[in-house]
Structures are given as C-alpha cells and as structure tokens.
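Run: sequence + 5-O-phosphono-beta-D-ribofuranosylamine -> complex structure.
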Amino acid sequence: MTDHKTRLAVFCSGTGSNFKALHRSIAEKKINAEFLICLSNRSTCGAIHYARENGIPAIQMAENQYSDYDSFTEAMLDALKIYRIEYIILAGYMRKVPDAVVDAYRERIVNIHPALLPKFGGEGMYGINVHKAVLAAGESESGATVHMVDEEYDRGRIVLQQKVPVLPGDTPETLALRVLACEHELYPRALRKILEEMNASDAP
Ligand code: GRF
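>> structure
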C-alpha cells in the first residue's frame, strides 16, 4: 500500500447506507482512501446528513439549479477539480452521470447495483423494481454487483459480485434487505480491490 490516500467523491440520493459502510471501512484502515465531498441531486437525504456529521462537505447539485445541462456538467467537473477527486463512488445515486464526467473519469467511476448484472440491469431497474423482477423471473439467487461506470446504465466492467439466495416466501422487501446487507460487505471489498489494482499498475 502506498501512503497516498485516494481522493474520493461520493454521489448519493438516499439513505447512504453503502456510503456509511465504505466510510467505516476507511476509518478501520481497510481502504487507503478518503471522502472529500458528498454530492447529491437532493437538498437533503440520509447521505448528506451523514456526510455533514462526519465533517465531509456535502453539496447539492441538481440539473434544475442550472440554466442548461452543459452548465450543470461544468459545475460538476469544477467541483471534482477543486477537490482533486481521483475516483467517484456512486452509492444510491439516482441520476445518470453526465457523459462528459464519465469521459473525464474513464474507469474511475464505481457503482453498486442490487442484482447479478448483466441480468436485471438497465434503465428503470432500480430500487424495489429490481427485486420484483428477480422474483417474477423465478430466480433461485440474486446478489449485488460492483462495476465501473460507462455511458450506458449498468453496463461497465464488472469488478466483483456476491450472491445471496432467494428464499421461499421472499417478498421484494425481504429480498431487498438481504441484498443490501450483502452490498455493505461487497462494496468495501470491491473498492479495496480497485484501488490495489490501480496502485499495482502505477508501480514502476
Ligand atoms: C443500493 O441498493 C444500491 O445497490 C443502489 O441503490 C441503493 C442505495 O442504498 N444503487 P443506500 O443509499 O446505499 O442505502
């Protein structure tokens, strides 16, 4: 491990339980990184509260605050530049990352999805919809996927996956809880892997 702590931004729209799990792993020194900003399309949410309570600047950045999409994208790129962000962590971010940001952070934007991609991904496959679709398809297992983000929803390179069983009598809600618990274990493990591989490839 190098001494350099990788500079992270987290993008969230909701509870931020994955953000919290990652932040805990960093505090426990399992990941050599630090969160510099929390960016949200919402003015308030669990993730923003958590960031502020933990001394991490939290910024609301929503398209409707800007005159057009280009200005919004520019503002996002500026914020990332000001904080010298190296990796962007999506943790329940309910908006598409602008293409210009994906391009500027190629292979450096990470997302977690509550299913075993490439199944049950794509536009509209978020939140409880995913678990409803898994049950409707009669799957015997589900799980979570950590993947790199590209211009298409849920299609970037898969980093790690972790499975959970679908149990008799599961409802979308019970399955969602089991998958979320698995995400909290998987995301820190996957981020650690990504950063270790990045450091290894940077080594002389
Ligand atoms: C998680 O299920 C994640 O897979 C999806 O959004 C949810 C976020 O939950 N992308 P939280 O805000 O981290 O609690």
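>> summary
The CA atoms of residues 138 and 166 lie 9 Å apart. The longest helix spans residues 172-202.
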